[in-house]
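Dear all,

This email documents one entry for the complex benchmark we are building for the journal club exercise. For each entry we list the sequence lines for every component of the assembly. Then comes the predicted three-dimensional structure of the complex as a token string, followed by one or two observations. Please use this as the template for your own entries, and keep the labels exactly as they appear.
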Amino acid sequence: MTVYYPYTHLFYGPSHTVAISGPHIQVINTTTGDVLHSTALFADEARSAVLKSGPIRCAAVDKNLEYLVTTGEDKILKLWEVDGLKLLSERELPKKPTGLAFSADAQSILASDKFGDIFRYPFVHVPSTVTQKKDALSSHENPSGGQLILGHASPLNAFLLTHDERYIITADRDEHIRVSWYPQGYNIEMYCPGHSKFVSAIHVPKFDQNKLISGGGDPDLKVWDWMTGEIKHAIDVAEAIDPFLVVRAVKRRRGGYDDDEEDEAAEGNGSKRRKGKGRAKGKDRQEEEKESEEGPTASSSQPITENAEKVLVIQKIGSFEADGVPTIIFSAVGATALFTFPYRDGVTASDIRHFDFGRPITNFTIADDGLVWALLDSEWTPDGVPSGSGIPFVKVLKFSLGQLVEAPSGSHSALLLTLNGTSLVEASVDDIKKLSLYIDLKSMPKYADKPEEAEETTEAPLDKKLSNRELGRMKRKQIVLEKAGGVGVGEGEEEEEPLGKKSKSEL
Amino acid sequence: MAKRKRTQATSSQIENFLLPQKKHYRQRAHANPFSDHSLDYPSSPGVIHWASHYPAFHDTGKIPEFADIGCGFGGLLIALAPLFPDVLMLGMEIRVQVSQYVEDRIAALRVTASESSAGIDAIPHDYQNVSVVRANAMKFLPNYFSKHSLSSLFFLFPDPHFKSRKHKARIISPTLLAEYAFVLRPGGIVYTITDVKDLHEWMKVHLTAFPLFEPVDEETLRKEGKGPIIDAVYTSTEEGKKVQRNGGDKWLACFRRVQVSRNS
């Protein structure tokens, strides 16, 4: 049984196409299907440098497909010349990158990161001769001298430049979609508020450039007028996706983010506060902090049982015109189908069409000729052992009579044959696991809700001191409520806690 | 620590009893702003039911104009409330116990004021124009305030996060300033004060460097009639009083929101 890396990115061009799988980049002649360049065929030193960076997480090309930027696991931004697959420069990024993009003129490279920032780097890299000195006033590490465009206080999941490049739109794990001037990103034009879960994909359709389509953990895709922040339309997609969501998320214990956690853990170890808190041993410090803030929780005294659950994470949103009909196409992490709906007013969930591949989709690309290239994780099996089944890793679809169908053989066939044959790169079972293709299912959602519910019911009996405290508060509060008079206790309480849940343990 | 007399509290015993006691709301002084707290926050300013925060203003359509970021025990809000009776003010505090304290404090003040406001307080006031939310302002400020809706933004004695590796957790940073500029209307004022010299330098440097803020000195603001605000900034908060008692220095720095044009 031979196991291969599934593809994660495909950049399609009329003359050549760039395919990325695992740590490797390949340039393929689009017409003939000949592999022109491949990092898998590099000589020793160059090859080990490629492997050292690990699986490629983020990649982008300029619009002429002359240049490619990639990042792996090592926070190194690599700029490649596609012709010859020459490595032009390497830059160290300050934080783990989450997305890359070229400006239209290819003169700027933008990188978003888990810290929530966007840095801009010039095409030509002039390595700094002096190491960046960190003084008491420097707020951002910036090892490669990038220009800080903007920053959120939570990890950035997606960003894009509008077509005129006057605005940059960014989306984060805390539900925010922000529209900022570009490059003067400090000037926030508007927020698009309304998501109640993380936003993981955004798209501005070419045929309606004033609108933004966003999706994430919420059951619907939202259509915005991004200049005004007004929501124009929402279409429920969760039900359409659900039957195809085959990859389950194993619940994370905590919803924090790794960069931060590393810091916290490093500092938390051996700190005084840790002592005398034997109970908290072996937990990461965020959890400990939470305890001290919100009182002991039921979950802190017993291990959380790992259970797999369905999690919705919109992976990518795209658009194209099929037979003159503006169409939206999207995918979800760990789902086996691609979904489309016509882009028009009044569209509902019943207008969603799907094409099922039977294997989770890792990415898709819409070629200029309207064909949709779907990249599949054909090694996936429910128990996580790569299948080695030899079923196709790439399929080509076309839009016909209102839905996606498999494209009959044609000019794309040579490339497709190569992608499903000679350009596949062998991998070990371990390599496949390290790809963590479905990490977003775990890292995107927050899991902070349950402990608080537990707090409300268990707080008092667990700790006598606390309950004294509660009593002390209650005595006064009750009199205050009575004094509030004719209002009635229930109503009075509502006045004090207008935003709902919070902690109502006092009552 | 012994309980201190609050200047806002009256001598009335009943009122003193009604006011919440800090000993019932103890919590460590720091919170990690980057962790996922069990917060409940509005998805957008538009969905907030401000009338439930400010029942006496329910038919005015008013929204908060002053925001005290990290309001702590609420000293500034309580001091400013009688001075600007028509201005709605909101405190934001990330620590659940402390925000609960402020909430209970305001509730108690509202009740006592309606009973015995005549002649006991120096300025009779019902504290209907102040409220508090438990919130992580670093992450969710735009969930509470719409574009240009605030006229004053307060950062009083913020957590200094002394270690340089912790500087990213400071409430003033080049990237967060964009959000403050977004919610603050042009001409609006950011007030900062701290007893930590390094933090003062930090805030001053970053706010001054930020294109949408320009420094404005105390004298100018006093001439504009903002003297009472500045006095409250210096002295009304628990932290401010503590510094005073210990004879420490306080550094004030204020900035005005300005507009810039696009680079072409």
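Observations: The radius of gyration of chain A is 25 Å. The longest helix of chain A spans residues 464-483.
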